[in-house]
Amino acid sequence: MPDNAKALLLALLGKPSVNGEDNESAIAMYICEYLKANGIDAICEWVAPGRANVIAVIEGRDTSQTVIWNGHLDTVPYGDLNVWLSPPDQPLVLADRVVARGSSDMKSGLAVMIYTLVQMHQKGIQPAYNLLFLATCDEERGGMGAMHFCEQHGMDNVQHLLIAEPTGCQLGIAQKGCLWLDLSIQGSTSHGAYPEKGVNALDIGIAIHQHLKQAFEADQHALLGHSTVTLTKLNGGIAANMVPDQCEMSLDIRLTPAYQSAQVCATLEAFINHEIKVLYPDASVFWQIVNDRMAIGLAETHALYHQYQAIQAKVSKLDVNAENNTANAKAENAAKENNNHKWMAPVGVRYFTDASVLIKSNPEIPVLLYGPGRAALAHQPNEALYWSDFERALAFYEAVYQMTLQF
Ligand SMILES: [Zn+2]
Q1: Exposure pattern of 94-108 as b/e (b: 16+ CB <10 Å)?
Q2: How far, in Å, is the centroid of ligand 1 from the Cα of 38?
Q3: What is the pLDDT of residue 318?
Q4: 3: which of 111, 179, 229, 319 is 20 to 30 A away, CA to CA?
């Protein structure tokens, strides 16, 4: 069993867990055994064949509150293997970073959380509150692991959720929601020279896309930018001289916390009933939701955010060696202080996480993201993790473990 954080991370990176291709339960069982071997009670909870979650509960001094530390076990596929510097499941250790699939998203986050739990346990330090470590399967696709956890255990008494998704060691306090819609439009064909005699299904599809774009892209979120309505699939048409009677399309809609997916659905339904059906009485439009993950946002005025910011400030100062007064050290410290402003700024992420599944039944539960990985490297060939980010995240999670919640 690895006896340091780096070795633990390399072990996790060496256990392939590509969603839909590998047996995700292998890495789940490894983590479970690792925790147990280090004296922490952990269980592997089966979700489906080849898929399992890992759950470990560490009793706190105050048992009335539980904080969940969450990360996912699966990764996305490798893409073109020729572009990789080394096989993606064989971590390539370089001086400043490690290259492997899952290094940023998010086995580094898992390793930081697991190693912190083990270290604190071995030092006999109890967390201030109950800590529930939850490693989930199937985050990159359907969120089966998070759903299973909610069904089996519920989210009662959960004070907040901390997820180690890649944020580049900044505090993540907002994430976009995601709504995928599939639409099928039926019009009627006619000769291309007499378009007024047909009902152009592609025109209707494009009108729907434009309408939703106008309705939902006007917001502005300080960290997330505006919501987006993107036409991602469009099929239809028979010949260059025929009006298309059929259109199949998909929309990928990413919402800031300003909007709920139900508002988009209601706007779509109203547009179909009050505009499309008036203009084209013979047309029919069928639509369905393929994926629905809500947006999440924590106000910068929230007390919890201030507590995490205090930890962030403390961890940032670790870089600065104030004792050393030589001219060089002073210049170096000034540069570090300057750089530390970056760590204090909160970020928003555009990708969705298991948080949208976990807090679905209780959207009031605050969610924070903090991980050593970098979002820009996730899902990319030669995905990497920088060792300096890893060290910083270890210091951060150790401080979080000992933090007392104050409200
Ligand atoms: Zn992820």
Answers
A1: eeebbbbbbbbbbbb
A2: 26
A3: 60
A4: 319
To the question of pTM greater than 0.70 for the whole model, the response is: yes
* Segments of the chain assigned to CATH 3.40.630.10: 5-175+296-401
The pLDDT value given to residue 329: 74
Ligand 1 centroid to residue 170 C-alpha, Å: 15
Give 34 Cα–ligand 1 centroid separation in angstroms.
22
Work out whether the CA dihedral 23, 25, 29, 34 comes out positive or negative: positive
Q: Ligand 1 centroid to 336 CA: how many Å?
A: 29
CATH class of this structure's domain 5-175+296-401: alpha beta
Residue ranges, comma separated, of all CATH 3.30.70.360 domains in the chain are 177-293
What local confidence, expressed as pLDDT, does residue 342 receive? 78
Task: Spell out the residues 6+ positions from residue 171 whose beta carbon is closer than 8 angstroms to its own.
Answer: 305, 308, 309, 312, 346, 347, 368, 369, 370
Specify the CATH number of the domain 177-293. Answer: 3.30.70.360
The pLDDT averaged over each successive group of 10 residues in the chain (407 residues) is 94 97 96 98 97 97 93 96 96 98 98 97 93 96 94 94 97 96 98 96 98 97 96 97 98 96 97 97 96 93 94 77 68 71 88 92 95 95 97 96 80
310-318's contacts with Cβ under 8 Å and 24+ in sequence apart are 311/396, 311/399, 311/400, 311/403, 312/171, 312/343, 312/344, 312/396, 313/344, 314/399, 315/343, 315/392, 315/395, 315/396, 315/399, 316/340, 316/343, 316/344, 318/395
CA of 114 relative to ligand 1 center, distance in Å: 17
